[in-house]
Amino acid sequence: MELIIICFYFFYFSLEVFVFCLVFYILCASCDTDGEGGLGGLALRLIRKWIGGWLLRGRGGDGGHEGGKRK
User: Fold this and answer.
1) Number of domains forming the structure of the chain
2) How far apart, in Å, are the Cα atoms of 41 and each of 17, 36, 57, 59?
3) Residue 48: which domain range?
4) Which residues cross the membrane (predicted)?
5) Is residue 2 part of a domain?
6) Which residue of 18, 51, 61, 70 shows the fewest CB atoms closer than 10 Å?
7) Burial letters 25-52, b for 16+ CB under 10 A, else e
8) Residue 64: which residues within 8 A CB-CB, separation 6 or more?
């Protein structure tokens, strides 16, 4: 559980943590029976959130530091 908390805390600050979460999800996916539950589901939701935020910042969807809103 501590591992998940650490992963969540540093999620937006490190690409290495993103890769770690991806590997962690792949390793835990076989333990998950309903697709989105358990530790694998949590890791998957974190990965989706990170990718969504990255895409929005890159394309200017949320007015982030890198993108900004397009006119």
Assistant:
1) 1
2) 16, 4, 24, 27
3) 18-62
4) 7-27
5) no
6) 70
7) beebeeebeeeeeebbbbbbebbeebee
8) 53, 56, 57
